[in-house]
């Protein structure tokens, strides 16, 4: 008797809660909170491999990220970009390309997870992706449920073939779809900054592209005919004015890294990585992790530079001044510390002389003050990994073209 009463009560409770869930269903257009509290770090297939991807490549990248120390240095996401798609079936469900991903996405996600990493996927708000694969337009809720079932952790959502759509509404639809699917998935908004996502996306996505695509060069512009892609310095310049929109859980995304892709010199790779750290950019490596030289690995896994990027305050750095083509950037860090980076934009060697006693900066945005007269800071060269004493003495350097000098100053 008691047993059947208990059974009946639990049946009533469970049907009430089921009913309640259905009844309380509210379309929620806000992203999952608590994700990407520091800029996301990982690897993405696009910059190096474009559409030439398959499950073997993805598994190998996961293996290498673990074995080469990148995972220990903080890299977490293995992100599959465009062209993983096969067709939709008669019910509209999307399937991966059966030849390139024969084991299916669930198995691949399980594999990546078994390595202690997370997996990302790519779709598009329009009818087709930029690579001409099926887009999510009209299938948003179905796709989000599919990704959640596969165990996806990160979605990059592109903006090709979106005629007639407005970005804010379209991105809110996929946000609601992800929320409804119930799995916390980072949403990476990729509409190239066209509609100023920094103004409306703080509660919609966890990062948003601020520009068109990066190109593998230091300061060129590459003309594709109908669109242009931009070298590292052009992308950097386009971040002007955006720092106030970034913070934990919502980042400006100046696109993925070209470090190690062969066109940048060793100095330029270092400069690119340093500046992405200074502006609290997502650190998505975009090279072939299986075949990289020692220098590339050293750049990508420099923990002191990564720590600047991953600082818990999540304050994007800023350009403080420019002298004879040398830019001086600052980034406030936790515990009253600062990162300072000198970037030589010219191709000539420049003399740099730093007189800390003349160097005072107030960052009104974060209400922080850099004042070595009042507080002597300890200086650490984060590339040479050397302590350089305190801010009491002058320092003189010769800085190679396209190279950086980067310090952490702490109290
Ligand atoms: C767009 C994006 C790129 C990449 C390609 C894939 O150009 O901006 O980052 O995802 O599409 O086709």
How many strands appear in the DSSP assignment?
22
Overall geometry comes to: globular
Beginning-to-end CA distance, first to last residue: 71 Å
Percentage of residues assigned to helices: 25-40%
- What multimeric state do the chains show? single chain
Q: Uncertain segments of ≥5 residues (pLDDT<50)? A: 1-23
Could you say which structural class the secondary elements and strand pairing correspond to? Answer: alpha/beta
Bound molecules: alpha-D-galactopyranose
The proportion of residues in beta strands is 15-25%
- Main pleated sheet: 8 strands, parallel
**Average pLDDT, to the nearest integer?**
94
Write the layout of secondary structure elements.
Elements: H1 2-23, E1 41-44, H2 46-49, H3 55-67, H4 70-73, E2 77-79, E3 85-88, E4 94-96, H5 105-114, E5 118-124, H6 140-150, E6 154-158, H7 167-181, E7 186-189, H8 197-200, E8 207-209, E9 221-223, E10 228-230, H9 232-237, E11 251-253, H10 266-278, E12 283-285, H11 294-300, H12 303-309, E13 318-323, E14 326-332, E15 338-344, E16 350-354, E17 361-363, E18 368-370, E19 378-381, E20 386-390, E21 395-399, E22 404-410
Parallel strand pairs: 1-2, 1-12, 2-5, 5-6, 6-7, 7-8, 8-11
Antiparallel strand pairs: 3-4, 9-10, 13-14, 14-15, 15-22, 16-21, 17-18, 19-20, 19-22
């Amino acid at each position: 008797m008691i047993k059947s009463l208990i059974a009946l009560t639990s049946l009533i409770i469970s049907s009430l809660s089921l009913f309640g869930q259905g009844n309380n269903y509210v379309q929620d257009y806000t992203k999952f909170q608590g994700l990407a509290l520091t800029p996301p770090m990982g690897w993405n297939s696009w910059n190096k491999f474009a559409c030439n991807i398959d499950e073997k490549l993805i598994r190998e990248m996961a293996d290498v990220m673990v074995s080469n120390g990148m995972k220990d240095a903080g890299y977490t996401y293995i992100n599959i970009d465009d062209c993983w798609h096969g067709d939709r079936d008669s019910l509209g469900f999307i399937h991966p390309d059966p030849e390139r991903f024969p084991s299916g996405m669930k198995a691949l996600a399980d594999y990546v997870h078994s390595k202690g990493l997370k997996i990302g996927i790519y779709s598009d708000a329009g009818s087709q992706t930029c690579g001409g694969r099926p887009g999510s337009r009209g299938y948003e809720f179905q796709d989000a449920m599919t990704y959640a079932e596969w165990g996806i952790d990160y979605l990059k959502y592109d903006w090709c073939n979106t005629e007639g759509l407005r970005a804010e509404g379209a991105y809110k639809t996929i946000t609601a779809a992800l929320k409804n699917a119930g799995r916390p998935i980072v949403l990476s908004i990729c509409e190239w900054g066209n509609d100023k996502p920094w103004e409306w996306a703080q509660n919609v996505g966890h990062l948003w592209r601020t520009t068109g695509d990066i190109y593998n060069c230091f300061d060129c512009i590459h003309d594709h005919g109908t669109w242009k892609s931009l070298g590292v310095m052009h992308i950097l310049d386009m971040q002007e004015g955006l720092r106030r929109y970034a913070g934990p859980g919502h980042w400006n995304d100046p696109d993925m890294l070209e470090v190690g892709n062969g066109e940048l010199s060793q100095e330029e790779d270092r400069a690119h990585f340093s500046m992405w750290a200074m502006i609290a950019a997502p650190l998505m490596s975009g090279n072939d992790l299986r075949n990289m030289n020692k220098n590339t690995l050293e750049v990508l896994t420099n923990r002191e530079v990564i720590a600047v990027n991953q600082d818990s305050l999540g304050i994007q750095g800023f350009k403080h001044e420019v002298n004879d083509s040398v830019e001086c950037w600052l980034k406030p860090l936790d515990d009253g510390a600062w990162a300072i980076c000198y970037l030589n934009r010219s191709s000539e060697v420049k003399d740099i002389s730093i007189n800390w006693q003349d160097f005072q900066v107030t960052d009104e945005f974060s209400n922080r003050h850099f004042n070595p007269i009042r507080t002597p800071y300890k200086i650490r060269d984060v590339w040479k990994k050397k302590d350089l004493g305190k801010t009491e003495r002058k320092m003189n350097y010769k800085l190679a073209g396209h190279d950086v000098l980067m310090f952490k100053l702490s109290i």
